[in-house]
Structure prediction request, 137 residues.
Amino acid sequence: MKLSTRSRYGTRMMLDMAQHYDEGPIQIGDIAKRQDISVKYLEQLIIPLKKANYVESVRGPKGGHMLAKSPEEVTVGEIVEVLEGGINLSRCIENPKICDRSDTCLTRGVWETATRAMYDKLNSITLSKMIKTGKRT
Prediction:
């Protein structure tokens, strides 16, 4: 299992906004240049993050986008949750009714435990923590 480009690029975009948090709205073109990601792709990622109240937009000549919450309040897990619509290592974790074996499946518990461990780790890493450590966590 691997995270989609949406999550990886979305996290980079949010981290960029966190690094420039005190500068006010940031134009998406500036983020695109710094992160080497197309403006069009970032524009697609902004939409669900705005709907989930993680990003605010400001119109006008000095407009742009900025975090709606402080970098201390935003976790990588939250970003991934918004952009992926949830992550489960197996489809039956989110919806046990899709599998006739869910009630008796001996492996389902393993996938559930692994999914929870992944989310716990991602939710323990804030944008602020990533900036402060300046390295992989």
Remarks:
- Residues 108-123 form the longest helix (16 residues).
- DSSP finds seven helices and two strands in the chain.
